[in-house]
Specification:
Layout lengths: L1 H17 L8 E4 H15 L4 E5 L6 E4 L1 H17 L6 E9 L2 E8 L24 H4 L5 H11 L4 E6 L3 E9 L17
Parallel strand pairs: 2-4
Antiparallel strand pairs: 1-3, 4-5, 5-7, 6-7
Length: 190
């Protein structure tokens, strides 16, 4: 039931993307803490992987849709787990580059053949070495992920070697937190 629910939600997202109705809400998100929390939840849910994080202690923010950005990161983490062997390492890094964050999710799994790298973000793309019986899915997750990242003003790309693992990178615009300064009110003179 969970798998069917997820497939239906992915198909609905594709429909929203194709018709220009994918809603992106905007709120300030402290990116380092957001990524740390999500990796911790993923680690708790999947105990047979070793998650390593390298995330700066930083208060800079991403202005974006919390649910949609969680969908992006969760999809990349789930893929890293799905396509790598039990007990292997998954590494998540966040780097600050001028006015953006570069977030990477790296696994030591089956990798992607070089001739398929350009197609991984296309709708319904499934690798030729990936059976739907063993790995499930419709090949929509990375397509949706790319659309969400781009609607947040970012970019996404992949680096992979077959049999050695895959790293997905994405950027998002970073901002300094906006502090509200309260002006002192003039005291009434008596």
């Amino acid at each position: 039931i969970d798998r069917m629910s997820r497939l239906i939600l992915e198909l609905l997202d594709v429909s929203r993307i194709e018709t220009g109705r994918l809603e992106i809400r905007r709120e300030p998100i402290v990116w380092a803490q957001f990524v740390r929390d999500l990796v911790h939840r993923q680690h708790t849910a999947i105990s047979d992987r070793r998650f390593h994080v390298s995330i700066p202690d930083d208060g800079r923010i991403v202005t974006g849709d919390r649910d949609r950005l969680e969908q992006v990161l969760a999809n990349l983490l789930e893929n890293a787990v799905k396509y790598s062997p039990d007990g292997s390492d998954v590494t998540v890094t966040v780097e600050e580059k001028a006015d953006s964050f570069v977030t990477a999710v790296c696994d030591r799994g089956i990798g992607i053949p070089t001739d398929e790298l350009a197609q991984v973000f296309e709708r319904f793309h499934r690798g030729r070495h990936v059976s739907s019986t063993n790995y499930g899915g419709l090949g929509l997750g990375l397509y949706i992920t790319k659309q969400i990242v781009e609607r947040h003003g970012g970019t996404i790309w992949v680096d992979s070697k077959e049999g050695q693992g895959t790293t997905f990178y994405f950027t998002l615009p970073a901002e300094e937190p906006k502090h509200v300064t309260v002006q002192p009110t003039a005291m009434a003179q008596t």
